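Milestone 3.1: sequence recovery, worked example.
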């Protein structure tokens, strides 16, 4: 058990049988009345963020979460198959529990959040950016760098993003997995 004084960003709580990560918290001590804590909580399963206010000193159920590296192997009808990089144990995860799944390619290393008591994987996080090759886009024209115009491009994983006009088929680009935006073109 923990109290509201122990809150930290990233801490996992068990509230009515559901797991929530603390995204943000603020201790408030008004001039009149008792102190309280405002939090933003992210549901582990649905990803929905909700606001919750706690009275100061309330006891909460803390869940011990471990971060473990898993390597993506392949996808089949069971889901996305990963291998623990130290024990070589293989697990299958549904696509809903993986953030940025459309940018996942074979061999990528992801961070899995594992419930320490039951050894179940709650979520899997991709690195914040990945390098992928463009497999299809309309041809670019030399000198098209003055404007911020973007065009659609299909990546090697099948995901579609918007890239600047100067990007062509075969170029490698860095993509932000959190929002699916183009970051930069990689020069070889």
């Amino acid at each position: 058990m923990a109290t509201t004084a122990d809150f930290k960003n990233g801490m996992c709580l068990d509230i009515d049988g559901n797991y929530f990560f603390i995204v943000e918290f603020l201790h408030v001590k008004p001039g009149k009345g008792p102190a309280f804590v405002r939090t933003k909580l992210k549901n582990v399963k649905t990803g929905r963020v909700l606001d919750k206010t706690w009275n100061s000193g309330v006891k909460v159920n803390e869940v011990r979460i471990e971060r473990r590296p898993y390597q993506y192997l392949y996808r089949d009808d069971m889901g996305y198959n990963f291998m623990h990089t130290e024990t070589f144990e293989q697990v299958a995860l549904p696509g809903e529990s993986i953030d940025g799944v459309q940018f996942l390619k074979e061999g990528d290393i992801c961070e899995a959040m594992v419930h320490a008591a039951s050894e179940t994987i709650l979520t899997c996080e991709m690195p914040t950016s990945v390098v992928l090759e463009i497999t299809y886009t309309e041809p670019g024209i030399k000198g098209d760098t003055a404007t911020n115009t973007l065009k659609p491009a299909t990546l090697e994983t099948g995901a579609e993003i918007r890239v600047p006009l100067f990007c062509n088929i075969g170029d490698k680009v860095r993509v932000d997995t959190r929002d699916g935006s183009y970051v930069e073109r990689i020069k070889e």
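The domain at 128-183 is CATH 2.40.50.140 (OB fold (Dihydrolipoamide Acetyltransferase, E2P)). DSSP finds no helices and 17 strands in the chain.
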